[in-house]
Design brief:
globular, Phosphorylase Kinase, domain 1, 4 domains, 711 residues, metal-binding, seven-stranded mixed sheet, Dimethylsulfoxide Reductase, domain 2, EC 1.9.6.1, 24 helices, nitrate reductase (cytochrome), alpha/beta, binds iron/sulfur cluster, Rossmann fold
Length: 711
């Protein structure tokens, strides 16, 4: 048996794993005791990674390229040259007739940094379109916009080690116990070591995380800004503001004070459905602790007001001086294993390499010079929801989807399915052939996956870890970066740019790509010019920034209280509470909130292959309060139809005391069946987006629930 050190491919904790393998089979996995994110621990998902790569799962792997002559024909096996030449011909023809913005790429936070880099260069450097977005838009883009708006950069200031130093933890919009289990174990350890530590949990639902809280605030969905503003109101009233910090290192506090003056605890209690004294207690614990650390995730991000929710939370840290010190700061938990790495290379429609902004002409010129291309187009690309809307309305003719399943994970699924049906060309590059999106693929390109590929990922605490191959790829599957680079050279030839494409994509492996990415970060906030694959090999995972000459990366940002804004000061953002995109009505009277289960990961394309992981929850159940069941004459276990303005799903109801009357909950993991014409949970969610981050409101919809009768 051999062993290979790598990284878990699920959540943003980014746990180190040791893959045990024999020949070309992965036979086991265990936690890497040396990895600083997990010190040898793994959760249920991570500890069954080997089962998701068991020989039986080969049945659902994409192993050979496939294509079909037209939409109604079945796909059949072909060779790589035939598949890539066909796609290059089609892309070239569409670009010649309609321009570069008629094509688009849609990727994933599951891709490695090296894969992301090549796709970004292909779209923005060779083709000349910024139509490259990823499912990170569904996950973290409001956290990104919030950090940039308040602190000046997309850079989480904290580390997991801060959990050990905090004496107040404020978990808001995150079921950490289920979604980031190893981080939650660290919280449990820290509380054991420091019994005086306070844990406040804010969530509409009484989750497992909430069960552990010293103070639980079950606020009404989407009312977070009213709560945070009221907490600031209390801090002002009680004199708990760190005035020295505010005066020396921030700007905009007077404007914010005017706004929060209106948010009395009594008013917020009304809006949020909370007890006034609980809001006051939360404010006191938050402000008067020696070090307060906030942990937050999709409960803030996946709302049409997601950016302002992030900023309103960061306001609390700036006002109380809980930032830039051990145990203190706003720590956004990344959903996916490499959403952060994707942003580092500019893998979103509004970004460029090394956190450069597409809207900045100097940044565009820098990137064009670095790549050796004439220019990078100024026109912003389409964000995830806009991208598929443009496919649906015919402005984007060809879409290339890599390593993700938008037919399931995007909101307003009916529209996404219609878009994929209407597209002139759908290319799907994936390791798995059983996703809903694959059903729409005109060309299916088989890719390698966890255990088979080499590169890097960056976790929530800015830590870059190596991902390593333990076994060879099945069939003819190729690495994501290699598929994109091969295609780029073929397309370049057809666009009259053969020489340029050969030069831009002359990579002999992931290290060459990563070195180029590293060199592009010189002088930027995420400068990693002091790092190399050799150093990662020798010293293990490292945090950025890590500039040339540094002995180590930074554990914590803003310890000098200097912020990357024009003034060098952090910015208070005066935000008002706004209601959810959909509010309950007579027709749709219930708040539906969506969330995650402990043992499934996102769209289940991998965890869904592991029988053991269904022991926790075998099917999606609609959690509903007893009063709401009684009002509808329903009983636990009945089959119901849940209907929103976007669509409907049919499933079993579960009597649950974890949601309040007037609310219900569904786990987001289950999809439908594209071939059978059924939709999944995201059939219900709206495609309303945040105006700053463009992140959709996947967390909430207004719904009706009724007994299901066939016909
Ligand atoms: Fe993997 Fe996240 Fe579990 Fe760690 S906590 S083993 S990264 S799923």
């Amino acid at each position: 048996m051999s062993e290979t050190q790598s990284t878990c491919c699920y959540c943003g904790v980014g746990c180190g794993v040791i893959i045990e393998h024999e020949g070309d089979r992965i036979i086991g996995v265990r936690g890497d005791p040396e990895h600083p994110a997990n010190f040898g621990r793994l959760c249920t998902k991570g500890s069954t990674l080997h089962l998701s790569a068991a020989p039986e799962t080969l049945a659902v792997r994409a192993r050979h390229p496939q294509m079909r002559p037209h939409r109604d024909a079945p796909r059949s096996r072909c060779d790589w040259d035939t598949a890539l030449d066909h796609v290059a011909d089609r892309f070239a023809a569409i670009i010649a007739e309609h321009g570069p913005d008629a094509v688009a790429f849609y990727g994933a936070g599951q891709l490695l940094t090296e894969d992301y880099y090549v796709f970004n260069k292909l779209a923005k450097g060779l083709i000349g379109t910024n139509n490259l977005d990823t499912n990170s838009r569904l996950c973290m883009s409001s956290a990104v916009a919030g950090y940039k708006m308040s602190l000046g950069a997309d850079a989480p200031p904290c580390s997991y080690a801060d959990i050990d130093h905090a004496d107040c933890l404020f978990i808001t919009g995150s079921n950490t116990a289920f979604a980031h289990p190893i981080a939650f174990r660290r919280i449990e350890d820290a509380r054991e070591a420091n019994p005086a530590m306070k844990l406040i949990v804010v969530d509409p639902r009484r989750t497992d995380t909430a069960e552990a809280a010293d103070l639980f605030l079950p606020l009404l969905p989407g009312t977070d800004i009213a709560l945070y503003n009221a907490m600031l109101h209390v801090m002002l009233w009680e004199g708990w503001i760190d005035t020295a910090y505010v005066d020396a290192h921030t700007e905009g506090f007077d404007a914010l004070k005017k706004v929060v003056r209106e948010y009395t605890p009594a008013m917020a209690a009304e809006i949020c459905g909370l007890r006034k004294q609980d809001i006051e207690t939360a404010a006191e614990w938050f402000a008067t602790a020696k070090a307060t650390l906030s942990l937050y995730c999709q409960g803030l991000n996946q709302y049409a007001s997601g950016t302002h929710k992030n900023s309103a939370l960061i306001n609390l840290h700036l006002a109380s001086g809980h930032i830039g010190r051990p145990g203190a700061g706003p720590f956004s938990l990344t959903g996916q294993p490499n959403a952060m790495g994707g942003r580092e290379v500019g893998g979103l429609a509004n970004l460029l390499s090394a956190h450069r902004d597409l809207s900045n002409p100097e940044h565009r010129a820098e990137v064009a010079r670095f790549w050796g291309v004439d220019d990078v187009p100024a026109e912003p690309g389409k964000s995830a929801v806009e991208l598929f809307q443009a496919v649906q309305d015919g402005h984007i003719k060809a879409v290339w989807i890599a390593c993700t399943n938008p037919a399931q994970s995007m909101p307003h699924q009916a529209l996404i399915h219609e878009a994929l049906q209407r597209a002139e060309l759908v290319v799907v590059q994936d390791a798995f052939a059983h996703t809903e999106t694959c059903a729409y693929a005109d060309v299916l390109l088989p890719a390698t996956t966890w255990g088979e590929k080499d590169g890097t990922v960056t976790n929530s605490e800015r830590r870059i870890s190596r991902v390593r191959a333990a076994v060879p790829a099945p069939g003819e599957a190729r690495h994501d970066w290699a598929i994109a680079a091969d295609f780029a050279r073929r397309l370049g030839a057809r666009l009259g740019q053969a020489e340029l494409a050969e030069r831009l994509f002359a990579y002999d492996g992931p290290e060459a790509i990563w070195n180029e990415h590293r060199d592009s970060t010189a002088g930027r906030d995420l400068d990693i010019t002091g790092l190399s694959y050799a150093l990662l090999e020798r010293d293990g995972p490292q945090q950025w920034p890590f500039p040339a000459g540094a002995a180590m990366g930074k554990i914590r940002l803003y310890e000098d209280s200097v912020y990357p804004t024009d003034s060098g000061r952090a910015r208070f953002v005066a935000t008002e509470y706004t209601a959810t995109a959909e509010t309950p009505s007579a027709r749709y009277p219930l708040h539906l909130i969506t969330g995650r289960l402990r043992d499934q990961w996102h769209g289940m394309s991998r965890t869904g292959l592991v029988a053991r992981l269904y022991n926790h929850e075998a099917e999606p159940l609609l959690h509903m309060h007893a009063d709401d069941l009684a009002r509808r004459g329903l009983a636990d276990g009945d089959i119901v139809r849940v209907k929103s303005r976007q669509g409907a799903v049919v499933l079993k109801v579960l009597a649950a005391d974890t949601v309040r009357a007037g609310q219900c909950f569904l786990p987001m993991h289950w999809g439908g069946n594209a071939m059978a014409g059924t939709l999944g949970i995201n059939a219900l969610t709206p495609d309303a987006i945040d105006p700053y981050s463009k992140q959709p409101e996947l967390k909430h919809a207004a719904v009706q629930v009724e007994t299901f009768t066939r016909g």
